[in-house]
Amino acid sequence: MIDIKNLKVNVEEKEILRGLNLTVKPGELHVIMGPNGAGKSTLANVLSGKSGYDIIDGDVHFLGKDLLDMTPEARACEGLFMSFQYPIAIPGVNNMYFLKASVNAIQKYRNEPEMDAMDFLKMIRSKLKEVDLDEKFIKRPVNEGFSGGEKKRNEILQMITLKPRLSILDETDSGLDIDALKIVSQGINNFRNPERSFILITHYQRMLDYLEPDYIHVLIDGKIVKTGDKSLAQDLEDKGYSWVRETMESN
Amino acid sequence: MDNQGLSTFTPIQIVDAHLQSQEFQDAFPSFRKSAKQYFTKSGFPTSKTEAWRFTNISPILKTKFKYHHQQEENKDQIPAPSYADKCLKIDILNEKVAGKSLDHASFEAEGILLKLISEDITSNISPLTSNNENQTAFSALNSALFSQVIHFQIPDNQIISKPILLNIFSQSSENPVNSNIRIHITGGIHSQFTIIESYSGNSKTYFNNSVVDINLESNAKLEYYKIQHENDSSYHISNTVIHQGKSSMLNAYILSFSGKLIRNDIQVDLNGEGAELNLLGLTLGQNQDHIDNTVLVNHRKPHCMSNQLFKNILDHKSHGVFSGLIAVYEDAQKTDGRQKNQNLLLSETATINSNPQLEINADDVRCSHGSTTGQLDDEAIFYLRSRGISYEEARKMLISGFAHEIVNGIGYTPIKDSLNIFLDNYLT
To answer: Is A50 in Cβ contact with B389 (below 8 Å)?
Structure first.
């Protein structure tokens, strides 16, 4: 699905990612954990094509294509999706209009017919149910006046509507109460299939109670320093990142 | 005064010539005299005049114009907005109504009293008073020179279903033409009506100098649109004064799309208790457009509400000005006055001067004002792009989103639709 090799990224002359390697295969869910400032959000932003990052070295292949060469919109059209840590409010732009524009931009890129308003409405109604959102919700401006939980559910709504091959979920669990966490996790679980992959970035293991990750990676100082299964998340929760640093040094 | 032929004069020359005439032997001696008085005391504003600090009118004062330009009503139809056939239309070519295209019967059928008062009418006409007591040099210029008053009255209790469209078209040939457009409107008690004052012109330089007087009697309800599509070598100065009586209601939209220099002086006097005003403005500046909205809202009586929202979207080297004052008089307790100016700059070279002001002389009032200026939000553009939407489309969505509050507030759907089309072209 995605193959990241020796990725080195600077932000304003400062080294943030220092040779990161990660391979995600179809159907897999990878979790990246790490302390603040380790480079987690930088990784998500670089993969989704945000500007302001200097790529010093390395390459990224997504479904066999050079990802770093593509515009953000081309990445989305190729099947990459990022759920934002802080989804931005866009006053005056109706959520439904935005979602329809997004679906149809991707359809057009793939030379598939655009959806008309009726078909779209039918489709979006069923998706809204999956994330337990009221229909009123898509008639409001994008993310404007949404609570933290509503914003994150709106991100998941977009994910299940756009049906990406790879979803990068940047701290999707932050700002969620326990009920919203369950709904969001349920949305992700229902969406999983052998063709779809996920990179979940998080500080906490609490969301992992609801998901079944294949791998846990620990990102420290711009590199993945440890990889394990679900039990690694529990170890981190119990012992903290200093434990990883100590085991690194003793090795 | 020979100003009908081929001669051209600057506005200063024509005013000087005007001041020399002792007798005003036309239908409007009082207007001519008051204009003379204005120019005897004061002249045209300069860059030092506070109210004109951001708008330089010297290009107008230097231009030699033709006045009272007799326009042949030719075979060609006067261009009109797409929704014209849904309206009661008055074509105005330069400063005079194009009589041939005027369908008097349809106005009569709606009960509108329409009168075109021209110089050649010497019989006694009903006393014509003006709200515009020559507040500015340009309203005085208009009072000195206009050749026709377009006057209509909506009788008491009359509800006019179709909008009244003033389709004002300017046509210059080799010499630029100055048109002094004069419109007087009265809405009777409990009347309801819509006015669309729409400006456009051919591709030559012209100068529209319009004065619009509107009186709304008690409980009258007006939806008023001023739409400016001038060409990018032309000038447009307007003085609009609206008096609102008790419990009257006005929704006004000032939509300025293009013009080399546009200055709108808009004054609304809330003269009766419980009057309500919603004043919305949208400016789309491009190239070297200069568009100035100078607004004065006078709260003279208690329990009146005014709500102003002016949005400027400015691209290229365009320049926007918003100057707004809410003045609350001593008597005007329980005033609710709000004013908001929001500006979106699409280029590094576009500029805005914003000057919102409050002057409050009553103690029990609620007033607010504010101004914000910004550029397109990169984070928002990235958000949209990350969902597959192209940069161009994302930019369009954000700009439309910025204008949405105004566009969505427009009550007359054909104007909303044509505005959306214009916005779409502006953004492409």
So the answer is: no
